[in-house]
Amino acid sequence: MKEKKNIVTRLASSLKGDPIIWIIFILFGMISVVVVYSSTSALAYREETNAFTLFLKQLFFYIVGFCFAILSYRIPLKYYRRYAIPILVISIILLIIPLAVRSLRSFTIFGISIQPSEIAKISIILYLARILEILPLKTFKEYCIAVLGPIGIVSALCLTGSVSATLIILAISAIILITCKKVKRRYLLLSVPIAAGALGLAIILHLIFGIFPRFDTAIKRIERFVVNTENIEETPQERNERLSKEYQSSEAVQAIQLGGLFGRGPGNSIKRDTLPNAYDDYIFSIILEEYGLVGGIIVIFLYLCFFYRSIVIASSCKKDFSTILVLGLSFLITIQAFLHIYVNIGLSIETGQTLPMISRGGTSLVIMSSAFGMILAVNRTIELSMIKKTLEETNRK
Question: Model-level pTM?
Answer without folding.
Answer: 0.88
